[in-house]
Amino acid sequence: MISIRHLRYFAALAQHRHFGRAADACAISQPALSLQIKDLEEVLGAQLVERDRRQIRLTGLGEAFAGRAQHILRAVDELADLARASSPSLGGRLRIGMIPTVAPYLLPAVIRRLAERFPAVDLRPREAVTGKLTEDLISGSLDVAVMALPVSEPSLQDHPLFDEEFVLVRAPADRHKPPPSAESLGAMRLLLLEEGHCFRDQALAFCDMAPGLSQDPMEGSSLATLVRMVGAGMGVTLIPEMAVASETSAVEVSIARLAEPRPRRSIGLVWRKTNPLSEHFVQIGEIVRQEHDLLRHHRGAARIPDAQLRGGPGISDDLAGHA
Q1: Cβ–Cβ under 8 Å, residues 4 and 76
Q2: Alpha helices in 171-239 (DSSP H)
Q3: 215-222 long-range contacts, CB within 8 A, separation 24+
Q4: Is 222 found in the same domain as 115?
Q5: Are residues 24 and 59 in the same domain?
Q6: Per residue in 49-108, pLDDT tens?
């Protein structure tokens, strides 16, 4: 008989395509996982996995079986969530994701607030780029995620939380220059996040540049890296308001708002439409929004004037009292 355990183990193997990584994800030994997969194949009377010394491949049946297994596992998880949804307070496991251009600035505070508000919750935070978060939401390996809107997947529900502007980070010598237009910015050496970050695509869209077509593109894996590259005289970059205080406090750069229409993004909470915990997720979204508002008030990110500000150790008075 096929068991839920069989399905979970096989789904993990289908996701990771590696017995060792799948075993780690399931918190069992590799031999135990291999034995369970062989047992499943014996129950079915058909081969699901092609094995060799270097890699594994799913058979045609294995690929089809993996999709059905994921669907069944999502339904099983949502049965448990249905019971959780009937409780006035959220409890049990909560797998929450955030994109990398939000997580360093909001996730620690959000985790603290969630632990206070829902003491019975077993929090499992995860930071990942938009594509990975979307994939994990659809597969059921993630419950809810904080990410940029809109989402294009029809199976996902989004709940807007807040909007924020992007600000320009450039060399200290440029602090008295007027902010460049979008067209002028596109002609500069614009430092970008690596492929896969939605913030990269938003920056390119503002400059009306196709992905991969920026002038002599230079990339970094984080906003912190981009700001330090600007401080070293390698170009200019855009960062979200919430990152200003953290990323410019120890780097000599200048900061300015761009001219209207300014680039901005909308951040929201996203979950599967079929998840019965929607009402609890709205409460989680309110906590995220409140923490963002507190961050703006405490660090003064929302009070960057149209005139340029000086970052780094000599940061302007407007930000110095809120760093």
Answers
A1: yes
A2: 182-187, 198-206, 223-231
A3: 215/186, 215/187, 215/188, 215/189, 215/190, 216/189, 217/190, 217/192, 218/189, 218/191, 218/192, 219/191, 219/192, 219/193, 219/194, 219/195, 220/191, 220/192, 220/193, 220/194, 221/193, 221/194, 222/100, 222/193
A4: no
A5: yes
A6: 998 767 788 998 989 998 888 888 888 877 777 767 667 778 888 999 999 999 999 999
d(CA 315, CA 199): 25
Q: Sorting pLDDT into bands at 50, 70 and 90, what band is 250?
A: confident
Same domain for 189 and 315, yes or no, is yes
Peptide bond just before 104 cis, omega within 30 deg: no
272 and 221 share a domain? Answer: no
CB atoms within 10 A of CB 183: 9
The whole-number pLDDT of residue 209 equals 58
What distance in Å separates the CA atoms of residue 287 and residue 291, rounded to the nearest whole number?
Answer: 6
Give the residue ranges of DSSP H helices in 103-188.
103-117, 130-139, 182-187
Query: Which range marks the domain in which residue 147 is found?
Result: 89-162+267-299
Strand partners, 14: none
The predicted-structure confidence for 188-232, as pLDDT tens digits, reads as follows: 888 888 877 888 888 878 876 545 444 455 788 899 999 999 999
Proportion of the chain in helix, strand, coil states, percent, rounded to 5: 50, 20, 30
**274 and 156 fall within a common domain:** yes
308 and 184 share one domain: yes
- Residue where a domain stops, chosen among 84, 114, 139: 84
Quote the pLDDT of residue 90.
Answer: 81
Backbone angles phi, psi at 315, to 5 degrees: -55, 150
When divided into structural domains, the chain yields a total of: 3
